[in-house]
Write a structure and sequence with these properties.
The protein is mostly helical and 42 residues long. 76% of the residues lie in helices and 0% in strands. The protein has helices spanning 2-13, 21-40.
Length: 42
């Protein structure tokens, strides 16, 4: 779960990429997908 958020943070801090609404929406989709598929295996 740390992967997508740390990638965004490093992109903004190190590379100077803009953090837009689309990036936030994509992050929410990725994290929710990880949550859904990790819970379905139980």
């Amino acid at each position: 779960m740390v992967g997508p958020m740390s990638t965004n943070l490093m992109g903004v801090v190190i590379l100077g990429e803009p953090f837009t609404v689309w990036v936030a929406a994509g992050t929410v989709l990725v994290i929710s997908g990880i949550f859904v598929f990790s819970r379905s295996g139980r």
